[in-house]
Amino acid sequence: DRSRLLRLVNTPAVTLDGEKIELLANIELPKDTEAALAAGAVGVGLFRSEFLFMGRNHHLPGEEEQYQAYVRALEGMRGLPLTIRTIDVGADKPLNDSVPDAAHLNPALGMRAIRWSLAEPAMFLTQLRAILRAAASGRIHVLIPMLAHVSEIRQTLQMLDTARSQLDARGVAYGEVDLGAMIEVPAAALTARLFLKYFDFLSIGTNDLIQYTLAIDRADESVAHLYDPMHPAVLQLLADTIRAARDMGKPVSVCGEMAGDTAFTKLLLGLGLRSFSMHPAQILAVKQEIVRSDTSKLVDWAQQVLQSEDPAAAMAQKP
Ligand code: PEP
Ligand code: MG
């Protein structure tokens, strides 16, 4: 129950066999950092920055307003690292009336996330400048959503260079950032090793990874029964991405709903995951699962689940 969970706030997230697990928060607005700290998060793994932009119609936040919001979030985390995802609008998160998503044939396959940012360079550069400036006041990681192509990676890096040059030209101070890629398209998961050449860390967005792997619109209730995190193809992509990052010695996290669902905690630990980012309300329940887990006993079982044609049944044989 809740009061027992609350006692875990200051307990380190360490497994029975001594593995340290990083529990991070997903936030939508700077004020959510309060809930993140209250739940004992050791950082923000996903700040969905599009929430600063949504419902604003034609008055998108400018550089100064964004800069202040990012600094507020940093201050809210009192020195703990903050991962800001660049704007991820489109599909289930329409920006405003001028982006008539319903008019597109397949909004989830259309102009969204990094595709939109690269198509709107002035907007993207404004956001990157605001983030770089905020990085002068604390540890910021930048996370890029929905990448699939190396050309998009190169263009994104180019944009970051341009944003830095623009700040240099204005003589404005900015800081270093770590750069990460969201793995949420099967193409990205299948080429995770390539992504790792360009990025400091990866974050797996299982909500979209499941949608795109299984061709199930995550917002369409008529096919919701087929939206299956335990589909062998989804598990394979997850396992391969975690493996690739671990092999290359770079951090990898899961920030989709699976990370905050205690039904999957042991499986993700068994697959080698050591960093989870979730809604603050889930953190203590996941921590409880972690402090009761022995990862050394989960590895073989996770491989069995992975190889099973009925992973849900194999899951039930939990050690
Ligand atoms: C995801 O796709 O899993 C994710 C974390 O991003 P969002 O839910 O914001 O699309
Ligand atoms: Mg996503």
From TrEMBL:
Membrane-crossing residue ranges in chain numbering: none
Catalytic center residues: C255
E.C. designation(s): 2.7.3.9
Record: residues binding phosphoenolpyruvate: R48, R85, N207, D208, R218
One GO CC term, this protein: cytoplasm
Co-factor requirement: Mg(2+)
A molecular function (GO) term: phosphoenolpyruvate-protein phosphotransferase activity
UniProt: Mg(2+) binding residues: E184, D208
Compartments where located: Cytoplasm
Predominant localisation class: cytoplasm
Keywords: Cytoplasm, Kinase, Magnesium, Metal-binding, Phosphotransferase system, Pyruvate, Sugar transport, Transferase, Transport
Domain of life: Bacteria
Single biological process term from Gene Ontology: phosphoenolpyruvate-dependent sugar phosphotransferase system
Domain PEP-utilising enzyme C-terminal span(s) in chain numbering: 7-293
Catalyzed reactions: L-histidyl-[protein] + phosphoenolpyruvate = N(pros)-phospho-L-histidyl-[protein] + pyruvate
Function, in words: General (non sugar-specific) component of the phosphoenolpyruvate-dependent sugar phosphotransferase system (sugar PTS). This major carbohydrate active-transport system catalyzes the phosphorylation of incoming sugar substrates concomitantly with their translocation across the cell membrane. Enzyme I transfers the phosphoryl group from phosphoenolpyruvate (PEP) to the phosphoryl carrier protein (HPr).
Family membership noted in the UniProt record: Belongs to the PEP-utilizing enzyme family.
Annotated protein name in UniProt: Phosphoenolpyruvate-protein phosphotransferase
Organism: Brachymonas denitrificans DSM 15123
